[in-house]
Automatic annotation (TrEMBL):
Residues covered by the Peptidase S9 prolyl oligopeptidase catalytic domain: 520-714
Organism for this UniProt entry: Novacetimonas pomaceti
Any coiled-coil regions, as ranges: none
Descriptive protein name: Acyl-peptide hydrolase
Pfam families in the cross-refs: PD40, Peptidase_S9
InterPro entries given in the database record: 6-blade_b-propeller_TolB-like, AB_hydrolase_fold, Pept_S9_AS, Peptidase_S9_cat, WD40
Membrane-spanning intervals of the chain: none
SUPFAM superfamilies the UniProt entry points to: alpha/beta-Hydrolases, DPP6 N-terminal domain-like
Signal sequence region: 1-30
UniProt keyword annotation of Membrane present: no
Free-text function comment from the UniProt entry: This enzyme catalyzes the hydrolysis of the N-terminal peptide bond of an N-acetylated peptide to generate an N-acetylated amino acid and a peptide with a free N-terminus. It preferentially cleaves off Ac-Ala, Ac-Met and Ac-Ser. Also, involved in the degradation of oxidized and glycated proteins.
Keywords of the record: Acetylation, Hydrolase, Protease, Serine protease, Signal
Annotated Gene3D superfamilies: alpha/beta hydrolase, TolB, C-terminal domain
Length: 718
């Protein structure tokens, strides 16, 4: 997990792959100069031997780095010091399990880098039984499963159960498994169908309803499930009794909005939830109150509003990924709110009497939070005191100062409780994401990933600079480890999202963990690299995240990309005429924008699955004239609007089963570049998704990019 309040997706990968195999068993990389694509001229064949030797060394380095163990999808047992997580190693994913932070056990036996994801992990309260999802896409769980490995027949998205004996039982198609508080039952969703069964037996369909089920929450007495259902224009919450006697679906009285994040009271007789609306496009941010907290009494069927935020900051609902409501034993509701302009966790009486009290510090964002097992402390991760450093904290609910749980030399953005223990996912400059457990203050690290032999990293420098309109910006600078008295080519890296934040360490999100190791590799090859955290990203407060006129509304964040280039131009160790740019998704959009508007600044760019035409359909609630004006702004904010000014060469890489950014965004750009005679190199991964599922594909995309910049920035400098 990384600091963010939205899904990774922006809107809604030519390579030849091999079925099966692992990362270290891929065939030798075929340099693009041997088979050029698009309008890109071939490289200098007089340097073929040197290039092939360099390619082999680079492939060895990147293969070793991408093969490092990377942990994700952590879960914990609520009543036992046991955690489980997914480990990706050499392209294959497997589930690991650890007790009290001791050396882990591998619970599955997957061996192929075929893109099959493992996710949705859940443990029974005692930690003895594990559920997980094999296949599918956690971002689009109700779409057809991906087939990045190009199997003859695509796999299914299947819920599995691993029993205490180690036996692995498939439970059927679906996702998001959740155990009851006593571990006796398992529930999961499959589209609009709720599947429920006793743990260890095959679940059966409890009911089917229009829409898709997006969340499940059990009552403390194990009797009911609150089911969150997305119906497109609105969302409802269904209540299901698992005793088998129900003949009708019971719904909490709904409104013309989306009801989300249900939580039961400690006695199981009431449900609190958030009711939210999406403002009409271009609504004044200081107008409207677009969400509220409600409580539904199951016995009486009555529902009441207990709190609505005031107009202004925090009047539109936002929550950290995975954020939820908590109902404490002393009848307090804990919820996320950014009324001060910062994402904080606040509390108020479930009766609705009294004003909210925010528990986490102002001027800092919270990315993950849980109640301690005894219910006395709020455990959370936040960037308090340093916007580029995320630590875990413990805050007594009764009052008092927060205590840091983690160190200042690691980044921690995700936290869980495992019985009385606390588990976090940590990274640092040289270590990929790995779990760390705290047993009453004693630190235990089940896995300690290390850089491969012979590879060293530079320590990224946190830097600050300003945009032309005066915005204070943060970034990380990767400086080559050689003699800095000479000048180097340079690169600006722009992350995607855009609700993301790059950090001076490995990232807890696989996509950006890979980007970090690539930026380190580029620095080792002699590039000065600046990763810029531009406006509309997360980590720096609501005003920065919701900065005006970003993206299709005016691309104001491009000023921050220009500021990053200006910063590099004024460094004594950078060749100003040899600055490139690279990024994916929203970063691909900004790469395209940079080349279209400023080929005089950016000499080359690598655009991974970016958006190039920002115009969209009409916005409901706007007049025809208003929509025409909006579309004009969207067009002017698009890279292709300035295609006539584009001169610099570009590398385009896209997977053709991308569900976040339409593949046609890249085919459109390629056609327009061809018409303008602009040099480009293009590669497609058949069957790949937005965030490439196969390590094999990440390896080759990065090799292509490195070779591309070698030709366009390095060789051109000589």
């Amino acid at each position: 997990m990384v600091p963010s309040f939205f899904a990774h997706g922006l809107l809604r990968r030519a390579g030849i792959g091999i079925l099966g195999g692992t990362l270290l068993a891929v065939p030798a990389f075929a340099a693009p100069q041997a088979a050029t694509q698009g309008n890109m001229p071939p490289g200098n064949t007089t340097q073929a031997d040197t290039a092939q030797a360099g390619d082999a060394a680079l492939e060895k380095r990147l293969s070793a780095l991408l093969a490092m163990p990377f942990a994700s999808e952590m879960t914990a047992a609520s009543q036992a010091p046991r955690i489980a997580w997914v480990e990706r190693r050499e392209g294959a994913r497997n589930i690991m399990l650890s007790d009290r932070g001791q050396a882990p056990r591998r619970m599955t036996d997957y061996t192929r880098d075929d893109g099959t994801d493992l996710w949705g992990l859940a443990l029974t309260p005692d930690g003895r039984t594990l559920a997980y999802v094999e296949g599918g896409d956690p971002e689009f769980p109700n779409d057809a499963p991906p087939n990045a490995g190009r199997a003859v027949f695509a796999g299914k998205q299947t819920v599995h159960l691993i029993l205490p004996s180690g036996r692995n039982l498939p439970m059927g198609e679906g996702h998001s498994p959740v155990f009851s508080p006593d571990g006796s039952h398992l529930a999961f969703s499959h589209g609009g169908t709720l599947m429920v069964g006793r743990t260890g037996t095959t679940p059966v369909a409890a009911f089917t309803t229009p829409g898709v089920i997006t969340g499940l929450r059990w009552s403390p007495d194990n009797r009911r499930i609150a089911v969150e259902v997305d119906r497109g224009s609105h969302g409802v919450i269904a209540l299901w009794d698992i005793d088998g006697r129900a003949t009708d679906i019971s719904f909490i009285p709904s409104g013309l909005a989306s009801d989300v994040l249900p939580v039961f009271s400690p006695d199981g007789q009431s449900v609190a939830f958030v009711r939210k609306q999406e403002p009409v496009f271009n609504t004044d941010p200081d107008k409207g109150r677009f969400w509220s907290i409600h409580v539904h009494d199951i016995r009486t069927g009555t529902e009441r509003v207990i709190w609505t935020p005031p107009q202004g900051k925090g009047s539109r609902f936002a929550a950290p990924e995975g954020g939820m409501l908590y109902w404490t034993a002393d009848n307090q509701l804990l919820y996320p709110w950014e009324g001060s302009g910062w994402m904080r966790v606040c509390a108020m009486p479930a009766t609705g009497e009294g004003a909210p009290k925010c528990l986490t510090p102002d001027g800092a964002e919270v990315s993950s939070y849980h109640l301690s097992s005894d219910g006395k402390n709020l455990l959370y991760t936040a960037n308090a005191g340093n916007a580029d450093l995320w630590r875990a904290w413990s805050q007594p609910l009764a009052g008092g100062a927060a205590t840091p749980l983690t160190q200042e030399d690691e980044e921690v953005t995700e936290l869980f409780t495992a019985g009385s223990d606390v588990a976090v996912m940590a990274t640092n400059v040289t270590q990929t994401a790995h779990p760390v457990m705290f047993d009453h203050g004693t630190r235990q690290v089940p896995v300690t990933p290390a850089l491969p032999p012979g590879i060293s990293f530079v320590t990224p420098q946190n830097v600050r600079f300003h945009s032309a309109d005066g915005l204070d910006l943060h970034g990380q600078l990767f400086v080559p480890p050689d003699d800095t008295s000479r000048r180097h080519p340079a690169l600006v890296f722009v992350h995607g999202g855009p609700r993301r934040q790059m950090l001076p360490a490995f990232n807890a999100m696989g996509y950006y963990s890979n980007a970090y190791l690539m930026n380190q590799t580029l620095a080792a090859e002699g590039y000065v690299v600046l990763a810029v955290n531009y406006r509309s990203g997360s980590g720096y407060g609501e005003a920065f995240r919701n900065a005006p006129d970003t993206g299709e509304a005016g691309a104001s964040e491009y000023r921050d990309v220009q500021a990053a280039a200006t910063y590099l131009q004024h460094r004594d160790d950078v060749t100003p005429e040899r600055i490139g740019i690279w990024g994916g998704s929203w970063g691909g959009y900004l790469t395209g924008l940079a080349l279209a508007r400023n080929s005089d600044i950016f000499a080359a760019g690598a655009d991974f699955h970016g958006v190039h035409d920002m115009t969209g359909p009409d916005h409901p609630g706007l007049s025809p004239q208003q929509n025409r004006e909006v579309h004009e702004t969207e067009w002017r904010s698009s890279p292709i609007a300035d295609i006539q000014h584009w001169r610099a060469p570009v590398l385009l890489v896209h997977g053709d089963d991308d569900h976040n950014v339409e593949f046609e965004q890249s085919t459109l750009l390629a056609r327009m570049l061809t018409a303008q005679g602009i040099p480009y190199e293009d590669h497609v991964f058949p069957g790949e998704r937005h965030a490439f599922l196969r390590t094999y594909d990440w390896l080759h995309a990065y090799l292509w990019m490195d070779h591309f910049f070698g030709r366009t920035l390095k060789q051109a400098q000589k």
